[in-house]
Design brief:
The chain is of the alpha+beta class and 389 residues long. The protein contains five helices and 15 strands.
Length: 389
């Protein structure tokens, strides 16, 4: 009988103490793998109302600010980002991902948009999500939380934040986003008796709807699970979502004929393709380099004007077609890296430029022609010998 009591004690859901955290991208605490620093994995206290400032702040982001020892993660709007997490106790639960541009605001004043649902995330260790194409460029905070439901109808929360730099062709601004506070008012109920509650993961015969606010784009990242109108959507806790503004009505010309609104600004300069599948290319830096070009220097060799559509599956495209401009045969020259901008590593770019030179082309801004004095001298010497014969 004693043995049975021990077994029941160990199996009881309310006796289990879970630990879980995001590991990729590396969160602010800097501990990306292993069991070190399990204090960073402990649940974050949270109660409806969140009167305690320290509790509220930790629930937004466990760490108060960026860690100078953790590099900022570069991501591209419209493209995929790999997320990985680890649990030291595999209890039922769901994860969510948020983005905030309020990097200089106190945690209690930061506003977020939701970008992904990770339903039953304890059952898989990683997943690729799509960074919404509508997100503007700039420094931001990526927030990951796990609602552990092993203590149902209550909940335990685990939270990590990552500092990111978003590259984007979107012309929207952070101020235009329908962002919201995480804690004031709180976007989650603190137990099953508060509002919509949480699903009972131990009873698959009951409703398994996910709890939380809607996403900025309900068509990606399993966001339909918490779209407006779903059973456990919590948008009412932050007010109705702002409607998408309608386009301005046509204005009348002096002749009385309707005219359309002014054309939109020139499209941004974006990459001609996705080279992220290749070790020699950093797609985020590639996108940044294109966006830094003005409309007059948006070269068709590497970049194009317009929007870049990311692949819908794992990147399988070849490296971007460079479209080099042929140069006259240049005896006594060789194609070498410019060692400028993003092309400063000769070990990476020398083979590329050498291959171009063998094809009698040399494309900027990666490569440039360089005179080879030894070859020039040899040719001249050969020419003189020929003249003397």
């Amino acid at each position: 009988m004693l043995l049975l009591d021990v077994v029941l004690y160990l199996l009881a859901p309310n006796r289990c103490y879970a630990h879980g955290k995001l590991t990729v991208p590396t969160p602010r605490d800097g501990i990306s793998t292993g069991r070190a620093g399990l204090d960073q994995n402990n649940p974050v206290s949270f109660e409806s109302g969140c009167d305690d400032e320290n509790t509220c702040d930790a629930f937004v982001c466990r760490e108060a600010g960026p860690n100078p020892n953790v590099p900022i993660k570069r991501v591209v709007a419209g493209q995929e980002l790999m997320l990985q997490w680890s649990f030291t106790a595999f209890h039922v639960g769901d994860c969510s991902v948020y983005i905030s541009y309020d990097v200089d605001e106190p945690r209690s004043q930061q506003k977020y948009v939701k970008i992904a649902n990770l339903f039953d995330c304890k059952s898989y260790p990683s997943k690729r999500i799509t960074i919404p194409a509508s997100l503007p460029r700039g420094r931001a905070i990526l927030r990951w939380d796990w609602a552990a439901l092993h203590v149902w109808p209550k909940v335990e929360f685990y939270v990590q934040c990552v500092d990111v730099e978003i590259s984007s062709a979107s012309t929207s601004s952070p101020a235009s986003l329908d962002s919201f506070s995480i804690t004031n008012p709180p976007i989650y109920p603190d137990n099953g008796n508060d509002g919509v509650g949480y699903r009972n993961g131990f009873d698959r015969g009951s409703g398994q709807e996910m709890t939380g606010p809607s996403c900025i784009d309900d068509t990606i990242n399993d966001c339909a699970r918490t779209a407006p109108g779903t059973a456990r959507n919590t948008d009412s806790r932050r007010g109705s979502r702002q409607p998408t503004p309608s386009p301005p009505p046509p204005t009348l010309s002096p002749t009385g004929n309707p005219t359309t609104a002014k054309p939109s600004p020139s499209p941004p300069c974006v990459p001609i393709g996705d080279c992220g599948a290749h070790a020699w290319c950093d797609q985020a830096k590639y996108a940044e380099w294109c966006m830094a070009q003005d409309s007059n220097s948006c070269s068709s060799v590497f970049c194009q004007s317009g929007s870049f559509t990311a692949p819908t599956s794992e990147p399988t495209l070849a490296a971007p077609t460079l479209g080099p401009t042929a140069l006259p045969t240049s005896t006594g020259k060789r194609c070498v890296p410019t060692l400028e901008g993003y092309f400063t590593d000769p070990a990476v770019w020398s083979p590329t430029c050498d291959a171009q030179g063998q094809a009698n082309v040399c494309v900027a801004p990666i490569c440039r022609w360089e005179a080879v004095l030894v070859q020039a001298s040899a040719k001249r010497h050969h020419f003189l010998v020929s003249e003397s014969i």
